[in-house]
Amino acid sequence: xxxxxxxxxxxxxxxxxxxxxLACASEIGLDADALDxxxxxxxxxxxxxxxxxxxxxxxxIGSIPLFLFSLEPNGGPFRxxxxxxxxxGGSGSADDFLEVFEAAWVAAKGERES
Length: 114
Prior knowledge:
Shape: elongated
């Protein structure tokens, strides 16, 4: 995931593009030919969609994208749930994100002062 994230976010390569996936797999030592063969099947299609639906329901996700910001390095609902999490659903303006960051800043200051 780190390599795919770097390709997507820093190299502007689509994480959903097959060639990006294959290149990233190869770069971390996975068998790109085996991955390509797997991606041509529907082997886990039902399982992926079931898991996707469960995650959305269990986590209460109502919009995509969903941005989560935690005050803890490994916090948030998709990791160890440590600390307080701040969320912004959907795409938004700079002011929308500033509001989330300001709320997190105030909370962080309050935790340090306690």
